[in-house]
Design the sequence.
């Protein structure tokens, strides 16, 4: 029982990061109908910024806002340089563009920085634990879960209670009608990319704190997790994205812990099998999104 | 008149054939003017002063083909390796070449088509090839050469890539030698219990190394108390594994994996967070690749580099020389000498056979014995292409990467 509880907390910690990533993916999908495979590049760029700043002796307290700011700026730059050029194009064009952005960013770091792994110090408290009864809770997990909760509440407030949120929801429901009603498309789309960058930046801080390294392709795994979580939750649904992230995190930890040793190395395979089964029986994901076609 | 014309044509044809035969790179005539039993003078090459060179060598060139991968998979070694080898060739030419023969190096990027890159090098007339580690890249090269051109898989420890009958050679120990040595070292420390991290039995590198460690450790009488799985080069959250280990550890085990440096330190941090601070950590050359010496929380972690570089030794001097000349420090320092040794081994094959036919060079390479390379003594004679080299064990002692043992 203790181990199960421990696993649940670990899974929640992992799932919280996935939830933040998935939420960023879902926000962009909602507005542009774009499944953004370049989302991981926000973490790649942030990773190199973390490497350079920490190498210069910056503390994580200073590096954290820099990483978040980097992710927001990178997200806006990608929108301006790549996606604004193909706005209104088919979903397939948008998808290919996002792949293109991913490859270009990776290649830039590969050619002009290094193919080698660049490591940096993690904060000293990352591996610390504190006891609650028979449980040993990692400080990291507690911080991740807490910050994610606050971030999700703030995001919810932003979307539900502000004019920007209203415009975002209107655009997600029916972009053309929203524009006819006076919603400025540029503002909404750039706002969505900024919000997506903010969420990726927060997730990136935790991701990089734990991993302590970066490479030209470091963003692939978080991108895949974010996209998967968004798909599990129901693409386009913000609540679904959060739910999908938590489910994915819990599934990974519980499967790795509970599977017999002989097949434990197939954990990722079992996760994908479960996702495949989910899509067979519930292709719309955990939460159905019901709204008109977007542009 | 007709007869005269036919005679003229025949004469021209004979002349053309004679000329083409004389110019054929595949003949068995000597490429160099080296005497029998000549050896590459590595020290003389390394000592060459590029600001004060002898006359350019005028003999038949020795052609070194490098099929290299510049992606993020093995670019960390192949990119610096493909910079260093031409530099060393430049130095060799600076002292008059290898017995009068200039050394030419051509680098072809494997990209997503190793066959095309290899074909380019073969068409150019490479006498031997230096290839990238990992079967994904090296096997297409071998399929293209069909065993007719020697291939040195410079930075690889993958046993399946060594096949002397197919002219394919490792330049260092293989996974079995490396991880067996790690097990031996742990056992020599008095450690009798082991925790092993693997990607899965039989998986190249990430599974074969743990397999080899387990086999050797159990052969010595040790007890492998836990085998955990993880995703190589990706996982840094080991919460599930740590929970399980915390339940069985006596806080005195050796933890072995082929994981990268940032993974081992992350794992260690999480295990220590659970109070397991008495464990000993040892890994493979992957720790050298990702620079465990530059990580935080690395004190006491052991690994198996390909060569232990000391300040001022030949390798250190060579790398410093490159940096001073080219204005750029090379990464993956511990692997660099393997690339240079690969070039010198190929050249030694040419000197031994006095030939330029790649297949004959390969036959000569297979008989190399006691070659004194930068990374130690290398012998291919009587092997399947895996030189029986001693394995250095380095450990971080007081923050310094220190040679603490040599196994084998």
Sequence:
């Amino acid at each position: 029982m203790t181990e199960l509880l421990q696993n649940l907390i670990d899974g929640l910690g992992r799932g919280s990061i996935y939830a933040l990533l998935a939420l960023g993916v879902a926000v962009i999908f909602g507005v542009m109908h774009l499944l953004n495979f370049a989302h991981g590049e926000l973490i790649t760029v942030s990773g190199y910024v973390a490497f350079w700043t920490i190498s210069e002796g910056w503390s994580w307290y200073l590096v954290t806002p820099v990483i978040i700011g980097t992710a927001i700026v990178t997200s806006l730059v990608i929108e301006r340089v790549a996606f604004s050029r193909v706005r209104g194009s088919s979903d397939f064009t948008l998808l290919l563009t996002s792949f293109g952005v991913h490859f270009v960013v990776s290649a830039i770091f590969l050619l002009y920085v290094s193919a080698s792994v660049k490591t940096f110090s993690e904060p000293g408290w990352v591996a610390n634990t504190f006891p609650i009864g028979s449980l040993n809770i990692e400080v990291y997990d507690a911080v991740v879960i807490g910050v994610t909760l606050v971030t999700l509440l703030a995001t919810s407030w932003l979307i539900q209670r502000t004019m920007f949120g209203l415009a975002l929801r209107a655009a997600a429901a029916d972009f053309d009608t929203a524009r006819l009603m006076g919603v400025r498309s540029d503002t909404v789309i750039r706002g969505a990319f900024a919000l997506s960058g903010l969420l990726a930046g927060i997730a990136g801080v935790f991701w990089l704190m734990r991993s302590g390294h970066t490479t030209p392709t470091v963003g692939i795994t978080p991108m895949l997790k974010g996209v998967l979580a968004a798909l599990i939750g129901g693409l386009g649904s913000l609540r679904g994205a959060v739910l999908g992230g938590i489910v994915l995190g819990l599934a990974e930890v519980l499967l790795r812990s509970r599977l017999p040793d002989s097949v434990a190395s197939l954990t990722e395979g079992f996760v994908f099998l479960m996702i495949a089964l989910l899509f067979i029986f519930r292709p719309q994901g955990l939460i159905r999104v019901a709204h008109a076609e977007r542009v | 008149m007709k007869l005269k014309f036919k005679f003229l044509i025949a004469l021209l044809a004979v002349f053309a054939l004679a000329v083409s035969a004389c110019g054929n790179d595949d003949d068995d005539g000597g490429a160099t003017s080296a005497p029998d039993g000549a050896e590459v003078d590595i020290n003389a090459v390394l000592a060459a002063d590029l600001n004060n060179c002898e006359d350019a060598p005028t003999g038949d060139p020795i052609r070194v083909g490098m099929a290299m991968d510049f992606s993020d998979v093995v670019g960390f070694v192949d990119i610096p390796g493909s910079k260093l080898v031409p530099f060393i060739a430049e130095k060799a030419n600076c002292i008059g070449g290898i017995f009068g023969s200039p050394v030419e190096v051509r680098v072809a990027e494997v990209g997503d088509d190793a066959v095309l890159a290899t074909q380019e090098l073969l068409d150019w007339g490479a006498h031997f090839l230096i290839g990238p580690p990992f079967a994904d890249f090296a096997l297409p090269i071998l399929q293209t050469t069909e065993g007719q051109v020697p291939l040195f898989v410079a930075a690889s420890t993958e046993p399946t890539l060594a096949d002397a009958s197919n002219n394919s050679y490792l330049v260092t120990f293989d996974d079995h030698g490396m991880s067996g040595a790690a097990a031996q070292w742990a056992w020599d420390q008095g450690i009798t219990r082991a925790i092993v991290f693997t990607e899965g039995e039989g998986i190249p590198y990430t599974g074969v190394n743990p397999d080899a460690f387990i086999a050797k450790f159990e052969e010595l009488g040790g007890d492998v108390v836990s085998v955990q799985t993880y995703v190589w080069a990706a996982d840094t959250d080991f919460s599930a594994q740590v929970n399980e280990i915390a339940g069985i550890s006596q806080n005195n085990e050796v933890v072995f994996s082929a994981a990268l440096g940032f993974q081992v330190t992350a794992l260690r941090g999480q295990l220590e967070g659970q109070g397991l601070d008495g464990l000993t950590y040892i890994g493979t050359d992957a720790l050298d690749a990702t620079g465990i010496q530059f990580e935080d929380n690395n004190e006491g972690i052991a690994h198996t580099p390909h060569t232990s570089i000391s300040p001022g030794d030949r390798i250190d001097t060579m790398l410093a020389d490159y940096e001073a000349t080219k204005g750029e420090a090379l990464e993956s320092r511990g692997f660099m000498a393997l690339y240079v040794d690969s070039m010198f081994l190929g050249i030694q094959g040419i000197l031994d056979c006095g030939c330029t036919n790649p297949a004959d060079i390969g036959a000569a390479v297979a008989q190399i014995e006691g070659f004194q390379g930068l990374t130690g003594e290398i012998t291919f004679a009587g092997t399947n292409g895996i030189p029986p080299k001693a394995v250095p064990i380095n450990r971080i002692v007081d923050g310094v990467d220190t040679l603490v043992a040599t196994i084998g």
Residues 203 and 395 of chain B are 26 Å apart (CA to CA). The first strand of chain B starts at residue 62 and ends at 68. Chain B is about 40% helix and 15% strand.
